[in-house]
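On to our target:
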Amino acid sequence: MHDTTNGTDRPVRTAIVGAGAIGGALAIALAQAGHAVSVLARGATLAAIRQHGIRMVDAATASDTGRAATVRASDDPSELGEQDFVVIALKAQALPAVAAALAPLVGACTAVVSATNGLPWWFLDGMDTPLADRRLEAVDPGGCIGRILPAARSIGCVVHLSASTDAPGIVRRGKGNRLIVGAAQAALGPSAAAFAQALREGGFDAECTDAIRGDIWAKLWGNMNMNPLSALTGSTADRLLDDPYTHALIVRMMEEAAAIGGKLGFSSGMTIEARLAVTRELGAFKTSMLQDMEAGRPLEIGPILGVFPELGRKLGVPTPFCDAVLGLLRQRAASSGL
């Protein structure tokens, strides 16, 4: 695939920031679509990718799927230079600490693709709401992300699939294959469409939308409760739903989130119980936050849950249940050294 955004005949230059499971899967797909893919990584992951590239294995058997990519890898953004696309596939809580270092990747025509959980740093920019262009401290503390990764150059990518890393540079694909791509600003529509097309060429079921914020909100509405509660309790999703007390708490949190969504112009398109039925179909799974807790990794507290009390205060919507769970989760993470 060649660059269709500036009329040149060179391959599209794409940098993946965060070479974990999702980042690795995206790198393989985009390389197979013809992008000149670079990966920003460090430590054992950097060494493994430099030596062996990125390889995908089957979820059930761990056998090689034959899907792999040899990519450029570095721990120095200035070594990679300006890109056509910069894909943020880090855990969202890690981005504020590294954002300033990403400046060499971003030029005047670079599109920045967020493929993270929760609300992205650009979510409120340009919205036709009372909070238009307001910054969310839970996502972008002090504005450190937005200064380097401009909201006006942002594209969203909602991930509806599971993946994990067996070892550095080895991606184990699980269920699902769907990605939803859309530009935050209409001017980036052609770039979003080109990116979605490349993902399709790389094997994903990728669709392009003009309403990416709605898709981001709909996914978050389904996991803003299950993730925190699973991390607090150590329980799989089915146990949280089966217990009448945690089930009631899940519903109360979703009601608060739905009230905030209504103020922002978002509708889930389904009832709370219908959304929980979708979650129940996934069975006894461990949420990503519970997996991070068990592995001793930092938790995505702000973008997944912290945004709701902050938005509630800005919009005059009470969020007592979200507030309580947020306080407990922050204490649990702190006492666990996370």
